[in-house]
Design brief:
CATH topology of the largest domain in chain A: MetI-like fold
CATH architecture of the largest domain in chain A: Orthogonal Bundle
Helix content of chain A: 55-70%
CATH superfamily of the largest domain in chain B: MetI-like
Oligomer: heterodimer
Number of domains of chain B: 2
Shape of chain A: globular
Structural class of chain B: mainly alpha
Largest sheet of chain B: none
Radius of gyration of chain A: 26 Å
CATH architecture of the largest domain in chain B: Orthogonal Bundle
CATH class of the largest domain in chain B: Mainly Alpha
Order of helices and strands of chain B: HHHHHHHHHHHHHHH
Helix content of chain B: over 70%
Order of helices and strands of chain A: HHEEEEHHHHHHHHHHHH
Number of strands of chain B: 0
Largest interface: A-B, 126 and 120 residues
Chain lengths: 334, 291
């Protein structure tokens, strides 16, 4: 079983990703392998074409049209008796109007602040928790389970749970701070715009940082023990080992976490819905909230999809960065 | 021991570590525990100051109202919780099953074989994982309107597959890559054809990967809010998160009632994740998924 199965040429053609074999003599087998692989992939690919790629293109098209939801006359795609309206083409008008709108730009700067603050908080808290949970202590497996609690909650529940902590009247945090004498009057966490934005950052961080911790822990476990032993022999203390061994080894994972949390920061939407609805005023309106509101509160699909597509473009740029990282990791493994 | 503080023994360091662990625990589960505490409290006790972390009186009336056993001010909203939970369960289970069937086979192909357009389709897969899902919703809105799938669980199922399938393929691909290809090879030597090698030999040893992919998909569907909120607006057709969000938006409903609904709604996903935590962590760190 373990020996090279010379009698069955097709057995050779099974290969692990990344490892390449020379097999000039097995040309027809390679073809049938590809056909088999396609058979396995086709349902998923068809599904994704139908429910991801097509809607994606259709939304993109909408961003170049004037969408009238009430009167869907005019040109349309007709397939199997289903009629999808194409609306009136207006070129770049939606984008021009979006870029001329000062609200768009103020939302963009706010989004950038939100993303920067979120990435910083999630990475630092995620790393901090990973360093603590990497220590030896009784009940470590249990702690690793509990780590996933904030992450496994619906953002609706995350939102209302933090309302329970931060509410002006019945919030537990105000109650605790007041009782131990740290504050005289209660804090209105959602009244001041900038404070509300920062609360959103932290609540989202509470929800997402555990995932960063998970990745950091996985990275820490793969660092060879000998490095620490050697460093200990050399008399390196905790901080020096952290700086010279742990952190450098975590660099690829750190980069992955930075990219993932940047994308997640740009896309965050549901917490805004539950906690602030973009307010007070426009003070917590990010690009994704602006696009969502334009499309689904005011039912302006044209401008709404245009706004959302500027966001998509940003995410696309980040995807290239992400893919570059993944490619580099594959090459490192091969 | 690793990069540990407690490497050099000493009581002070030990105390420090346990103190930090306590702080992390409080941070992670404190808010969720408090949600439960408020859900078994009377609203009037939540407002009492000075603040007390232990409620003076425990009541399960909020839960009993959700189950229709008692009636008070929020009974109309509370009555929607269980039916919407059932909707959520149906959608989540169907999407999970579809994902496991379709996504697993695709993941296997990506992990094992070379075929035309493999690189391109992998790129495309990565790309769809990075999309703001909200950008698809206007298209779904119009498509489902023409197809009559608005306010239906079928429509929601289709939409959720769009968001979950790329994840599942990715997780399963990463998992299959950890299974030695020798296993496939020996199955082929033993006279299996390729399909048999897949479902007779590889699938039976893929339990942990399937659990990871399945649990993650279920969790995403169970927790999803925006899509359901936008696509299924007719009463009775939507899932749990929009119902809870609607309660939260109503000024005249006691917070303790909302807390009970939220806690009850969160419980299935939390339990699922805790039970399958080990597999999930394995699958997610291997697939490096965005959460």
């Amino acid at each position: 079983m373990g020996a090279e199965p010379t009698g069955a040429p097709e057995a050779l053609s099974v290969e692990r990703a990344g490892r390449r074999r020379t097999r000039t003599a097995l040309r027809p087998v390679v073809l049938s392998e590809a056909a088999f692989a396609w058979l396995l992939v086709v349902p998923a690919v068809l599904g994704i074409l139908l429910v991801v790629v097509f809607p994606l293109v259709y939304s993109l098209w909408m961003s170049f049209t004037e969408v009238n939801l009430l009167r869907a006359t005019g040109p349309a795609i007709e397939l199997f008796g289903v009629r999808l309206p194409l609306f009136r083409y207006v070129g770049l008008e939606n984008y021009a109007r979006t870029f001329a709108d000062p609200v768009y730009w103020s939302s963009l700067w706010r989004t950038l602040y939100f993303v920067a603050a979120f990435v910083l908080e999630a990475t630092l808290v995620g790393l901090g928790m990973a360093l603590v949970l990497h220590e030896r202590f009784a009940g470590r497996p249990l702690m690793r389970s509990l780590l996933l609690v904030p992450w496994s909650l619906s953002r609706v529940v995350v939102g209302l749970l933090w309302i329970g902590l931060l509410d002006f009247e019945f919030g537990a945090l105000n109650g605790v701070l007041h009782r131990v004498g740290l504050i005289d009057g209660y804090i209105a966490f959602f009244k001041d715009g900038f404070r509300a934005l920062n609360v959103l950052v932290s609540v989202y961080m509470w929800n997402q940082a555990p995932f960063a911790t998970l990745l950091f822990l996985a990275g820490m476990q793969s660092i060879p023990e000998e490095l620490y032993l050697a460093a200990a022999v050399d008399g390196a203390g905790y901080w020096r080992r952290l700086r010279h061994i742990t952190l450098p080894a975590l660099r690829p994972i750190l980069f992955l976490i930075l990219v993932l949390s940047t994308v997640n920061g740009f896309l965050m939407l549901d917490l805004i819905y539950v906690l602030t609805m973009g307010g007070p005023g426009q003070d917590t309106t990010t690009i994704s909230w602006l696009g969502f509101q334009t499309a689904f509160s005011f039912f302006k699909f044209g401008p709404g999809t245009a706004i959302l597509y500027t966001l998509t473009a940003l995410c696309l740029l980040l995807t290239f960065a992400y893919h570059w990282l993944v490619l580099r990791r594959f090459e490192a493994e091969a | 021991m690793g990069g540990s503080i407690v490497g050099e023994r000493g009581l002070a360091r030990r105390v420090l570590v346990y103190g930090l662990v306590g702080a992390v625990t409080l941070w992670l589960v404190g808010p969720f525990v408090w949600l439960f505490v408020t859900s078994v409290s009377h609203q009037k006790h939540l407002l009492v100051r000075p603040f007390s972390p232990v409620p003076p009186e425990i009541t399960f009336d909020n839960y009993r109202m959700i189950f229709g056993l008692v009636r008070f001010h929020a009974e109309g909203q509370a009555a929607k919780i269980l039916p919407s939970m059932l909707n959520t369960l149906i959608v989540a289970v169907v999407v999970t099953v579809l994902n496991l069937v379709v996504g697993t086979t695709a993941g296997y192909a990506y992990a094992r074989f070379r075929f035309p357009f493999k690189g391109v389709s992998l790129y495309a897969l990565l790309f769809t994982r990075m999309l703001p899902t909200i950008v698809l919703i206007p298209a779904f809105f119009l498509m489902f309107r023409t197809l009559g799938l608005q306010n239906s669980l079928t429509g929601l199922t289709i939409a959720y597959c769009a968001f979950t399938l790329p994840f599942t393929i990715w997780i399963m691909k990463a998992y299959f890559e950890t299974i030695p290809a020798e296993l496939d090879r020996s199955a082929l030597v033993d006279g299996c054809n390729r399909l048999q090698a897949y479902y007779r030999v590889i699938l039976p040893v893929s339990g942990p990967g399937l659990v990871a992919g399945g649990a993650f998909t279920f969790m995403l569907c169970w927790n999803e809010f925006l899509v359901a909120q936008v696509l299924n607006t007719k009463p009775g057709t939507t899932t749990l998160p929009p119902v809870i969000a609607a309660m939260n938006a109503q000024i005249n409903i006691d917070y303790s009632v909302i807390a009970a609904s939220g806690f009850l709604g969160a419980l299935p996903a939390v339990i699922l994740v805790l039970v399958f935590q080990r597999y999930l962590v394995q699958g997610l760190t291997a697939g490096s998924v965005k959460g």
